[in-house]
Amino acid sequence: MEPAALDSCLSRAEQEAISSLPQRLRAAAQRAFAENSVEEIRLRVNKPVQLITSRDEIMLNALDALSEQEARQMLENICRHSVYAWENELCGGYLTLPGGVRVGICGKPLVDNGRIIRFTCVTGFNIRIAREAVGCSDGVIKYLFESGRPVSTLIAAPPSGGKTTLLRDIARRMSQGGYGERPVKVAIADERNEIAGCVNGIPSLDVGLRTDVMDGVPKRLSIFMMIRSMSPDVIITDEIGGSEDMLAVGEAAKCGVAVIASIHAGSSEELMRKRWLAEALRDGVFFRVLLLHRNGSRLTVAPIEAKRYV
Amino acid sequence: MKQNDMYRLLAGLALLVMCIVFGAVESAKYRSRARTLKDLLEDITELELMLKYERCTVDTIAAALAASRQRSTRAFWTGICERLRAGDSFAAAWSAERVKLFQLKNEDIAIMDSFAEQLGTSDYESELKRITAAKQRLAAAEQRVSADTDAKTRLFGSLSVLSGLACVLLVI
């Protein structure tokens, strides 16, 4: 198939991911995307390009490795030739392209007072393609309500476990209703801009009719702002990662707003090893924990009542 | 009056007109350079503010500058916009489009090169430093050219008339 014909088969996120690559790699990537369900593209200087699919990995050994010059150009291209405009995101180690494609970077950062102030060179990219799996929350939605009201729920899974995809579908479903519960006002605190994939503040992925999104702001700020200004029934946020995030979630719970959040953890034991989370679970911040397990493209859920952790 | 004398007189008058036109064109060029420098200085000030307070990307900045109707640099920024939309970097777009600023001299272009060739490739502080330095140099050049404009245009006007008259005398 011609590259133009292949391009029309691809989703917006896939097209964005491919257009961020150096020109010489695009045709091979397009072919791979058309033939496989590619989830990540990994590029490292002087190493062949690696594509991670839902089942396997593909090494593009036939193509030359990424050069330093190409890595520099790729970073500029990803930043729409405006590296200064993405400085905060780059210091956080990632930036998000339209369509919710997250590009993680690594290399040599310049550190001042224990804080990364900029990257002097970027040598590795991990491009993660956001997928809209409409209906993937069908089996989960019943666990998010009690007596017709949404309840605070923590979704735990290892990295690449499908948490963000599930959260996106939960937002869409809760916002639209039609599953036996009334539709609710949803607010998304999208710090990494992965859930809604906003472009200029407008979601590029379907997150529902009654959903408001605050993107690119730390959770602790956006959760407070949205409780005050948007009066949501539910706040959805991705990857809570410390006591500051948990403080904001706790405050939301005190205001009667349910929080549905995700976290990196593969089991209950791993959850309880996070001291700040163990305290929150004991305090009853979350009503329920859902442990996700992924087998290829299939998600299974193990619900655990948070009371169990007390 | 003989026919030859008539031709000489006509040739002399033609030379006089040519000299005056040449002088007017040169004066217009000089005024145009002053105006382009003034407009570029305003553009860079706007660019600096958009970068400083909004962290706008280069395509957004170029689009905003292309939309300013009263400036002589509008066509230049429109060209830059189109190239950025096609995926070029600012440096590539700049080097392709700067020919549209034909009124500028090499020394003015060199000032613009000092920030345009790297715009968008580095961090915020470095960008701001480069823009501020280029703006200062451009402001100095614009002041110098503006101050000279009246004197230079008068000089071009007088010289063209004088040289035209001299040609007439020589021919007659």
Task: Sum this structure up briefly.
Chain A is of the alpha/beta class and 310 residues long. Helix content of chain A is 31%, strand content 30%.
* Largest two-chain interface: A-B, 12 and 18 residues
Show unreliable segments of chain A: none
**What is the H/E order of chain B?**
HHHHHH
Strand composition percent of chain A: 25-35%
Summed up, the helix count of chain B is 6
Low-confidence stretches of chain B: none
Helix content of chain B: over 70%
Compute the number of helices of chain A. Answer: 10
Give the integer mean of the pLDDT values of chain B: 87
Number of strands of chain A: 15
Helices and strands of chain A, in N-to-C order?
HHHEEEHHEEEEEEHEEHEHEHHEE
User: What's the pLDDT, averaged over the residues of chain A?
Assistant: 86
Q: How is this structure best described in words?
A:
The complex is a heterodimer of chains A (310) and B (172). Chain A has 10 helices and 15 strands. Chain A is an alpha/beta fold and 310 residues long. The N and C termini of chain A lie far apart (58 Å). By secondary structure, chain B is mainly α. Helix content of chain B is 81%, strand content 0%. Chain B has helices at 3-54, 58-66, 74-85, 90-97, 106-116, 124-171. Chain B is elongated, with a radius of gyration of 22 Å.
